[in-house]
Amino acid sequence: MSPGLFIYRRLNSGRLPLMRKPSLFMVSMMMILSMLRSSGQEVSLHASFSRDTILIGDQVEFQFKLQQPAGLSLSVPEFKDSLPGGVEILKTLGIDTIPVDGNRLEITRRYLVTSFDTTEVTVPPLEVAYDKDSLHVRLATSPVALYVKPMPVDTAKTIADIKAPYKAPLTLAEVLPFLIGLLILLAIAWAVYRYLFNRKKPEETKPVKQKPREPAHVIALRGLNKLRDEKLWQKGELKVFYTRLSDILRTYLDHRYEVMAMEMTTSESLNALKSKGFNDKRLFETLRDILRTADLVKFAKYKPLPDKNESVLLDAVVFVNGTREAWNKEASDETGKPEGTEKPETALAEPELKGEEGTDHE
Question: What is the pLDDT averaged over residues 281-303?
Fold first, then answer.
């Protein structure tokens, strides 16, 4: 029986002599109490822990259960880091919704919680609110207690030292990346080794036997005889004649004594010849006279007499024959160089003044 209905019946039964007729206020109160009772039957709340006693730091589940009609909008408290009363939330386990009694729902909010206070922890009443027939209704759960006990200590035993950290054994998943990396490094090192030390060596080239070189004096005498036969100075081409004569002698110095006279002045060529150990004064003066006369004709437009033109050609033949190598064809075939290149041959007699090839006398 609702409280409002009980009061109304007592008034009509006459057992309350001081109030013969119910007043408007009393009727209103009874109606309000009846509505609250019916609303309380529509929504029910319940809060609880899965255990009421835990050790300090232990974990326990907290449930906040709500039954309501489907479609009713309620204002429900939300918890993130902790519950009221100092209980720490470790994790939100989720919300379970189950239909019951046809048009009603049971909604359970679950949390994994713990506490580090060794005392009795009490979660105060948790309230929900909703609107019903122009009334604002508020409902609350009963307080929930959680007993947190400290770790048991055996006082009969002596105080022990702190245990060393626990060493977890290595697993294959932890070691495998290092093994793969080591194998890759070894493969790279092996590839570098094969490339550097086992690569194909180039085949050794066998020395090619050089074709015997003509002796320097043979080349020079051939050039001098050709110059004589062209009769350039007789045709008035003095500059061409002396240029050709100078080039033949400079090329001979290059082949015979390795003096690069073609790239030197006359003075530089003569000094280089002395540095090679040339010590025949007569032949040295002959060469110097020929080269200086050629320079005067080429650069100073000097015009020598016909006898001078003939004598310089013969002097060139004398110089070449007086300094030529003692050439042996067989020795040249074996070494690629003319035999007897160590010392100049300067003791040969002068040829006849005709300047013919092969007229020298030993």
Answer: 91
Query: Cα separation of 121 and 143, whole Å?
Result: 10
Distance, CA of 66 to CA of 141 (rounded, Å): 10
The set of residues, in sequence order, having a beta carbon less than 8 Å from that of 280 and lying 6+ positions away, is: 322, 323, 344, 346
Residue 203's pLDDT band (boundaries 50, 70, 90)?
Answer: low
Element (H, E) at 306: helix 306-323
Helix, strand, or coil (residue 12)? helix
3-state secondary structure of 328: coil
**Is it the case that residue 69 has pLDDT exceeding 50?**
yes
Q: What is the pLDDT of residue 49?
A: 93
Separation between Cα atoms, residue 336 and residue 261, nearest integer Å = 23
Residue 222: Cβ within 10 Å count: 13
Is the Cβ–Cβ distance between 308 and 289 less than 8 Å?
Answer: no
Given this model, what pLDDT does residue 6 score? 37
Buried-exposed string 209-220: b where 16+ CB fall within 10 A, e elsewhere: eeebeebbbbbb
DSSP string, 25-41: HHHHHHHHHHHHHHHHH
Burial class (CB in 10 A: 0-12, 13-18, 19+), 65: middle
pLDDT higher than threshold 50 for residue 243: yes
